[in-house]
């Protein structure tokens, strides 16, 4: 009988969920945020830019952006058309430029030019919702949080941890399953797994190391050899998404320009 089927109790689900997290922690011991950043402001800007595009495309775009606008004060004073031209590769560049200028003005005027370290402050910034705030808090300030992006939501539903579709409700239910200390790294591990193995349209079930724990095993390719060909990034012997990955990353850095930005 597949895991999670046959009227699994909540206790059994929680135990299975925590075991999946432990397994993922071994598989992705090097899990990390896949946006290049050097400070909270760069992470905030990169996360806003990451909407509706890949982290790789953002990482290929931000070096020139931060060279021209290294501080909130600089970005607040940007000429919209010039900013739009720089961030055009990330898509939705007019809306994103408006958000970046707006949040930079708010940082300059309301927070002394510093990114605040509280969720209630971050979500007051233009273009910043809970997902973006949790990314910044977890990775720039060490404040635990769950990041519910498309990968995270897809996998936790596949694993029957929740049936919720609304990101805030997903966040609430997953937070109840795990200790607070695990929230940020759990987010990274699940997103890593979603980008590399448990794809949206064709999950590589036959190459998945947590297949015995998955109630949705069989939705994707179960033949091990065929599944292996579906693996992405370092799992498939390909470059990662970061141009400047952490030292312990087992794959190769992404190229500054070019293809390979498919999640």
Please provide a brief summary of the model.
The protein is mainly alpha-helical and 263 residues long. It is built from twelve helices and no strands.
Radius of gyration: 19 Å
In whole angstroms, the N-to-C terminal distance is: 31 Å
User: Could you give the order of the helices and strands?
Assistant: HHHHHHHHHHHH
Task: Return residue spans where pLDDT drops below 50 for at least 5 consecutive residues.
Answer: 259-263
Quaternary structure: single chain
Largest sheet: number of strands, sense, barrel closure: none
Share of helical residues: 40-55%
Q: How many E-type strands? A: 0
Structure in words:
The chain is mainly alpha-helical and 263 residues long. It is 48% helix and 0% strand. It has twelve helices and no strands. It has helices at residues 10-27, 40-49, 55-68, 72-76, 80-87, 93-110, 119-122, 130-140, 150-158, 167-175, 183-196, 224-228. The longest helix is centred in the N-terminal third of the chain and has 18 residues, at 10-27.
SSE topology:
Layout: H1 10-27, H2 40-49, H3 55-68, H4 72-76, H5 80-87, H6 93-110, H7 119-122, H8 130-140, H9 150-158, H10 167-175, H11 183-196, H12 224-228
Helix pairs in contact: 2-3, 2-8, 5-6, 9-11
Provide tags for this entry.
263 residues, 48% helix, mainly alpha, disordered C terminus
